[in-house]
Structures are given as structure tokens and as C-alpha cells.
Amino acid sequence: FQGDDTCEYLLSSGRFLGEKVWQPHSCMMHKYKNSEAKNCLIDKHIVFIGDSRIRQLFYSFIKLINPQVKEEGNKHGNIPFEDKSAAIKVDFLWYPEVNGSMRQRIKSWTEGSVAKPHIIVVGAATWSIKIHNGSNEALAQYKINITSIAPLLEKLAKSSDVYWVLQDPVYEDMLSESRKMITNEKIDAYNEAAVRILNSSSRNSKAKVKVFSVSKLIAQETIMKSADGLHLPESSRDTNAMILMNVYCNKIMKPIDGSCCQPQPPLTLIQKMAFCFFTLSIIGYLIISLIHRNNYRKNKSCTDLESGEEKKPAISTPSISTLEMLLHSFCKLGLIMTYFYLCDRANLFMKENKFYTHSSFFIPIVYILVLGVFYTENTKETKVLNREQTDEWKGWMQLVILIYHISGASTFLPVYMHIRVLVAAYLFQTGYGHFSYFWIKGDFGVYRVCQVLFRLNFLVVVLCIVMDRPYQFYYFVPLVTVWFMIIYATLAIWPQIVQKKANGSCLWHFGLLLKLICLLTCIYFLSYSQGTFEKIFSFWPLSKCFELNGNVYEWWFRWKLDRYVVFHGMLFAFVYLALQKRQMISEGKGDPLFSNRVSNVLLFISVVSFLTYSIWASSCKNKTECNELHPSVSVVQILAFILIRNIPGYVRSVYSSFFAWFGKISLELFICQYHIWLAADTKGILVLIPGYPMFNVLVSTFIFVCVAHEISQITNDLAQIVVPKDNATLLKRLLCIAGFFSGLHLVSAIQDQSRH
């Protein structure tokens, strides 16, 4: 930890990920689009002063504003650029030497009421080396000239952003005869002089003139690809221009994936209130613990002075009270949320961009799959999709999704399409599990609904408060919450058809199928009527939950992407439970699900279907087109997997306890990764131990998994307290929760008003 000035890191250090992706030390760089660059630089005047190398940087910079610009014009003259739509003016001024002419130009901006450029980028030296044949006298004169310019630059730096670009190394073997005197030794001497003089003034103690030294590091890796040994290849100068854009624009645009040069966001009123609440919980728990400990000591066995024997206390050790359990849970949660905040809101830990390679994704996948096989155990029951099996399924899917996120594999379309199936499979289990419960148990009570909603949403609500993020940001939880409510409404609305009632007459089965057909029709209609969908979720208070960046488009996109799979899960549960009731399947230990012939045929069809889907997903060329087909075809691979996993009796009778353990905390893992495993709201990677990527992943993963497991336990403990079985008490709790959210909404409105 060296303070929160990540601009210094961005301008001076970093490394290449692969061949073209530059990773600054400790922070993340945003890739600016033309529209973003224009919004940032609107009404700005930028000036580049220097030689042909600065001219290269000038062209790369203006191409970020307008990619259609061509490198034309007088190479040894001034080049103007203007974007009238955004009132942006960028000028290149040809001053190849640090001399009196350059000084006079810079001085003109410091005098009187002359309009000063907002950004000034200066650099020159190679012409001085070339013209004077690398003489020591030229270096001495360079020092004198830069000494006279330095105070002027410092004066400009008080109102403008001033950057001095150090000279890049050259590739001496490729230099023409007329440039042979430009050696790396000479360039280093000129750079050393510039750095020493620019940072020597007492008025410039904080280096107001920013030294752009990172270009040297980039050039060291790429100068051998230069066309003439002097000028950088296009990709390298584009990287320099992007760094320059990040230095200036990140503090204005505040991109999520651009942590460099972004100040720590100020604490909101809600965050301050949350901090006070958790602090009071910790203090309250410590006080109660001390009181209980003192009481326990008083009631301990003591020696009877008359008989010399131990007397046991009449009162037994008191059990943990509800208040103590509540404070204990909030105490742990407060410490965990502090860690969340420090990881992803404070500039305490470093963050890095993701970089995808096939090995970074597939090697960990193979490793965890092999590891999972070593923890194979027998299941307690051998039914299709039994509890151990569904936990195992959730577990390995969640681990694959985590590896997918940290490796940045979303850029590789075949992997993306397969991960979409895993997300769909989780929703399939949502439909299957909740339908099975309501169908078999017939329990449509408020207690069941509140328990499910609390377990799904508790962590996300806390994170929305602590991390200052909207509910829809954690899109998966709103998705499973809404689908749970849809399943509940479908089955709870009159007539309530459950298994016990349907056993009396087959007509009830047709009634349920009619309900499912109505549900499918509604889903189909909403998926092709974006306007209606957005109107429904734009009504208050739904809009507060489902808006992201001022609209509900993101919510519509997420819902539409897997719109049919929950219905498929419900339909599968209905068919499976009907077959099970009529004893048309065999679920004994070691027995195939159907007769040998039917089992073999279904197994063959399942394997072919599974592979066919994978081949189709791997051949996808257009993400938009594949996403359109995904909702209808993802069920093919899901059903194929279920049949492959359950038809052979010996496969159905075993499970991986390793994967099942992760499956039990899969929801917590999915949500916690946003801030304490990944960083910058999943856009980057959290770096606790810089310089050792593998060791860093091991440490951050260990903490991340422990935290997710602890939060799962806290959620379960609080669910018992907050959602009691007694209806009268539950109603009171619901009124308290409604009051809490009303207060939260009021504070949020006050907070938004103060921001504006």
C-alpha cells in the first residue's frame, strides 16, 4: 500500500498481458469508445508539442475521438484537429527541439488572459541528439533549456494537466545511417536530465508536471516491431493514447472498469447509517458476552467450606438468547461487510484487468473435475435429482462459472454459450424444485414464501446498502426471486391443484396442464412485447428494484435470455412425479431408470443430443443470433445431462461430496464473487498479493470461500429469527420489514436529491 494515487502507477509502471493488452500496476484501465471520449473532452482544448514521436501520439489520440482521421498533412509542421459536434480542439505543434522557440510558445499561455489549453503533452530529444551528432554540449544545452521551461510548465500545471513524455528507447540495429548517433545510452541521459530538473523545484514537490514514463516500458517490449527502429508500432502508440485518456477522463467519466485515477467514492448517508448499525451490533454483542461470561463464572462449581466437597450450581448454564444470536450474526456480518467495502470501494487493495487464455480457463476446469471425482460417496437415496445430486450439480456448475468469470472467458463465444446453459440449468432447478415442493406438500403458506424470499435476498439487500449498488445489479437474485413468485402464483391461484387432490381424478392433471399452458402463453407474449414488459416493471415500487442506469432494459434482457427454462423445469417435475406415482420408472439402488432396452436407447439419444448442442454452441459466430436461439434450445443439453446422470443406476447412486459442499453455498459464492474475488463490480480481479498471480488467487479464493460459507450460516441463523413460524409474530415482523424498506426508500430519496 503506497497511498491511493493510482495515476502515478498508470503513468509509470505496468506489464503486458499477452502481446497487446497493457496492464498498469495496481489498477484497471478502461477502453474508451469514441462516444465516451467525446463526452469526456467536450469543450476542451488539447495541445501536443514536440517531434515526430509526439505527432504519432497526437494521431492515436484523435483517432479515439474520430477513427476516420487519416495521417495526412505536413509532417514537419503544425497540424490542427477539431470536432465541431463536441467542440473539441486538438492541436499538434511542431517543436522538435527543447529550445527558445518552444519556451516562447509555452510562455505565451502563461501571460495575461490568454486561453490556456486544458491538456498539454510535451516531449522532445531525439532531434537534438541527431542534429548535434550526440555531442555532450547538446546535452548540456538541453539541460539549460529544460531548466528555463520547467517553471513555465509548473505554472501551467496549476490550471491545466501537463505531461512530459520521456523518450522511448530505439532499436539500434534498424536505425538508418543518418540516425545511428541516436543510441539508448544517449536517450537515457536525456530522460534522466528531464526527470531530475522537472521534479527538482520546491514548488513542484508533488510533481505537478506529470512525467509520462510508461511509454518507455511499452517501447522496450515492442520497439523491435518498429518499421524504422525509431517510431513505435501502431498498437503501442494506441496504448499510450489510451493511457493518456484514462489519466484525464477516469475521474470525469468514472467507468466501473477504469479504477486508475479514480478517487475513492464518498460514503453515502445510507452507508454511514449501515456502519453505525454494525458498530452498535458489535458493541452490543461484546457487552452481552461479557455479562454472560461473568454470570457463568458466578454459577461455576465452587468448594463447600464445611464439607470440603464441590457444590454444583442450582442453575444450569443459560442457552444463547435470541438477542445474543441476533447480535452475534450482525457482529460477524459487520466485519465481513467491512472486508467487502475495503476490497471494492476503498483504494486499499489493487485491481487488475482480466485477460483470457485457453489455458487459464481449461486447466482449472480439468483440475476441479478430477478433484471432485476423488470425493465420490454413496447417496442416501437413489431418486432422480435427489438432494445430494442437485447440490453436486449446483456445486460444479458454480465452480465452472467462477473460473469463467475470473479468467475473462466471456470473450470466447463457445465458452460463453456453454456457461449460458449452466445459468439456465440453475433456473431449471428453480422451476423443478419449487414446483415439486408445492405439488407434493401443498404448502402455500406465508411462512414458506417468506423463508425462501429471505434466504434468496438477504445478502443482496445488505450489499445494496453497503456497496451502494441497485438491486438489479445482482441480476441473478432478482431473476430467481421473480421466477419463484411466478411459480407460487401459478400454483396458488384458484383452483389450487396439488398431488393429493390430483390422485383422485385425472381431470386435475389436465387442469394443471392448462395452468402451465397459460403461463407459457404469458411468457411468450411478454418476450415479444418489450413495451408491455417495461411498463409493468416501470411502475413504482417495482421500478426501484428493477431499474439499472435509469431504465429496465437490462432486466428485460436478462429475463428474456432464459425465459422458457423455468417452465421446462416445472414441466419436467410434473412429468417425472407423474411417472414416479404410476411406478413407470425404477429408482432402486443400482437399477436402470427404465427397462434395459429403453434405457440404452434414451442414453444413446441423450449423449448424441448433448454432443450436438456442444457442437452447435462451439460453432456460434454471432452472439446476438445465438442468444436468440438459446432460450428454446438450452433445455436440450439440460435434459440430456439429467438422463445421462440418472438412467444408469450405478451413476445415480453416487455423488461428489466435494461439489455438493460448494452447491450448498452456491448462491453466496455467486454473489460474493462480485466484490471480494473479482473487483470493480466483476470487471477486474482483486489483487491482495501483487507480483504473485497464482499465490494471490489461492489466498483470495480461500478467504472468498470462507466468507461465502460464513454468510450462508448467518443467513440461516437470521432466517429462523426474522421469519418465525407463528403467523401473528410473522405478521409483526413483516410490518417491521415494510417499515424498514419505507425508511430506506425515504433516505435514498433524500440522498439522491442531495446528489443532484
TrEMBL record:
Under the heading Pfam families, the entry gives:
Cas1_AcylT, NXPE4_C
Residues in NXPE C-terminal domain copies: 22-90
Q: Where do the TM regions start and end?
A: 269-291, 355-375, 396-417, 452-468, 474-494, 506-526, 561-579, 600-617, 629-647, 659-679, 685-709
Q: Name one GO cellular component term.
A: Golgi membrane
Q: Catalyses which reaction? A: a ganglioside GD3 (d18:1(4E)) + acetyl-CoA = a ganglioside Ac-O-7-GD3(d18:1(4E)) + CoA; CMP-N-acetyl-beta-neuraminate + acetyl-CoA = CMP-N-acetyl-9-O-acetyl-beta-neuraminate + CoA; CMP-N-acetyl-beta-neuraminate + acetyl-CoA = CMP-N-acetyl-7-O-acetyl-beta-neuraminate + CoA
Q: How the protein sits in the membrane?
A: Multi-pass membrane protein
Where found in the cell?
A: Golgi apparatus membrane
Name a single GO biological process: carbohydrate metabolic process
Molecular function terms, GO-annotated: N-acetylneuraminate 9-O-acetyltransferase activity
Identify which top EC class this enzyme belongs to.
Answer: transferase
Q: Please state the Enzyme Commission number of this protein.
A: 2.3.1.45
Record keywords: Acyltransferase, Glycoprotein, Golgi apparatus, Membrane, Transferase, Transmembrane, Transmembrane helix
Question: Cas1p 10 TM acyl transferase domain: which residues?
Answer: 253-734
The family line of this record is:
Belongs to the PC-esterase family. CASD1 subfamily.
Xref: PANTHER family: N-ACETYLNEURAMINATE 9-O-ACETYLTRANSFERASE
Protein's name in the database? N-acetylneuraminate (7)9-O-acetyltransferase
Organism of derivation = Oxyruncus cristatus (sharpbill)
